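Postdoc handover notes: sequence design on the structure in folder B. Input tokens:
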């Protein structure tokens, strides 16, 4: 028998999120029931709630940066126990049988519809809707639950690691960032501030790129060794041909050539932001003459997400967050559109339960 739980949902792309209710299934043999304590707020939540991407299903309950406590487990669950602190990120299922899934990279599931998102169903549309973390509780297959070992006082700031953290960790690890690497992080926002922290903790020499001179001191405090104002041609030119790797977190369209020019031979630039309109076409000559590459990356697999959480717990890494009440979500969205947040909103879900 399904359970009804409180949630905040959008009924259409042009209506605000309001108190509602969604159904959660009774835990099956491999399921984990979770009381949600905190949920981070991602730009993807805003885009989805507002219907700005194709294939949005309503009602829409966003939220894929979930931290909570296990309240019940199915009879075949072995990974977690009642009372454990766990996380749920951007996925709640995948086909489990394709090459990507077998390689532990469920985010690249090769099934026709891709992985199943924590909200809005299949990655490529179709199929039943799913409801995310702007809710009191959730039921998830144990494969897609993650153990959290941070101190309880840090749990709110752990929530954004489930998206912003893994989105930056996965490409940094894939490109073997570590001691001896000179790494650039473009953009100092929700993603970029985590990229700086993680690259620094991995032992790289970290250069933060920002269009805002006012962010220089902030970036240094986050762990950057140097800060470059990307609008300053002289500052950019001083780093020409010197980077092993650059992670670009900016989602607005811009000239990628300015950054590929900074790569060494065999250097790589990874983009993790999706612009509303395309970037200008890159200069292929710059790539050819240095055997350089531009690539992309999306979130991370379950195994590497667990690796990231364990690494962050060991190194005392969390996101920089501002706590909000559930009923303040529309105000938070308005501030996000103005980049008025350092660097991630997190919802205290007790405020939803008390609604």
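Designed sequence:
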């Amino acid at each position: 028998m399904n359970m009804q739980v409180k949630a905040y949902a959008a009924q259409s792309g042009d209506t605000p999120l309001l108190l509602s209710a969604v159904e959660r299934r009774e835990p099956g043999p491999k399921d984990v029931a979770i009381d949600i304590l905190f949920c981070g707020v991602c730009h993807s939540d805003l885009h989805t709630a507002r219907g700005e991407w194709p294939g949005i299903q309503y009602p829409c309950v966003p939220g894929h940066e979930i931290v909570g406590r296990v309240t019940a487990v199915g009879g075949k669950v072995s990974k977690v126990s009642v009372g454990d602190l766990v996380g749920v990120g951007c996925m709640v299922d995948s086909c489990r049988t394709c090459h990507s899934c077998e390689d532990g990279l469920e985010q690249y599931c090769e099934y026709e519809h891709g992985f199943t998102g924590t909200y809005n169903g299949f990655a490529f549309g179709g199929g039943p809707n799913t409801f995310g973390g702007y809710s009191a509780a959730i039921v998830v297959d144990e494969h897609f639950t993650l153990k959290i070992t941070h101190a309880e006082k840090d749990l709110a700031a752990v929530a954004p690691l489930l998206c912003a953290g893994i989105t930056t960790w996965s490409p940094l690890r894939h490109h073997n960032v570590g001691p001896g690497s000179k790494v650039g992080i473009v953009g100092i926002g929700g993603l970029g501030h985590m990229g700086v922290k993680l690259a620094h903790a991995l032992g790289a020499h970290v250069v933060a790129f920002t269009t805002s001179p006012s962010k220089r001191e902030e970036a240094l405090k986050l762990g950057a060794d140097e800060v470059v104002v990307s609008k300053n041609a002289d500052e950019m030119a001083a780093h020409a041909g010197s980077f092993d790797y650059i992670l670009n977190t900016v989602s607005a369209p811009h000239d990628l050539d300015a950054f590929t020019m900074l790569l060494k031979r065999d250097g790589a630039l990874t983009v993790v932001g999706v612009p509303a309109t395309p970037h200008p076409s890159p200069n292929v000559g710059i790539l050819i003459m240095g055997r350089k590459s531009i690539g992309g990356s999306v979130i991370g697999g379950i195994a590497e997400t667990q690796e990231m959480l364990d690494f962050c717990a060991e190194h005392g890494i969390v996101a920089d967050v501002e706590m909000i009440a559930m009923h303040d979500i529309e105000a938070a969205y308005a501030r996000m559109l103005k980049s008025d947040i350092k660097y991630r909103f997190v919802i205290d879900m007790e405020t939803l339960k008390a609604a």
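Context for whoever picks this up: The CA atoms of residues 6 and 41 lie 18 Å apart. Don't rerun without checking with the PI first.
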